[in-house]
Write a structure and sequence with these properties.
Order of helices and strands: HHHEEEEEEEEEEEEEEEEEEE
Radius of gyration: 24 Å
Shape: globular
Strand content: 35-45%
Amino acid sequence: MKFINRWLHWLYQLSWKKVIGLSAFLLMVIMVPISIQVANNRTRTKSEAALIQPSPEAITTKFETPQGPPKIYLVDHFFGKAGDSVLIHGENLGGLHQQSSVVLSGKKISEDNLVSWTGKYIEFKVPANAISGRVEINILGQRTSWPGMFFVVDNTVLTEINLDKSGSDPNLAILTGTNLEGGKELLVWLLIVNAEGELKLTAEPGVSLTQTSFNLPLGKIYEVRLGLTNNLVQLLKVRKNDNQTVGIARAELSTGDGRFIPLKVNPLYVSF
């Protein structure tokens, strides 16, 4: 009790400037461990999750009657860790309904991990203990799946591709790879998110290139297949036009016997 009285007496004698300084110091001491914890437990939020951002809408039982069979245009991103947000862009998705479901690698996504569900997009969070696999939807008994693989990643997944922007040319980026050992072919979807015009793609030395393109309601897709040799880092030059945004919408690294090697993209280098 005497200690408390002495402490209060000391506090009353402080000037207002010293009181403010002491408060700021105590706040800094409290915030440092919180900041460290946030930095060590980074989870991609919705704002980082998507190449294409729909208007936010909470999960609802409002049901939009499908006008045809369900379609999935894009799973964005195509990789993520437990707790990350994932957007399914499509058409005739209905809405939350007891006879509709979202499935990842054969397991139904629980309602606890559903964030939004409208006729044009579904947002879910990667469940704990999820494994890599196909993303499927069942809308009133009509099923469809995205052709790409969704990769569940963590800190042990070291295989990575990125779009590294040129420091001197804002319309040029290099598709680079890290820890691609064992991979023989890399399939990549490059999506033009906005603005018109064609991409110019040039394979780097040691890489073979085949490409096709097609249009989705979300934008134009360039499907690129790269034949790889060992110890490559720079894979492909990507040149866009002014005002365009280009992003990696799908990527699959396969071995000679057709197995997939899980990979990821640094969210900072998904698009340019």
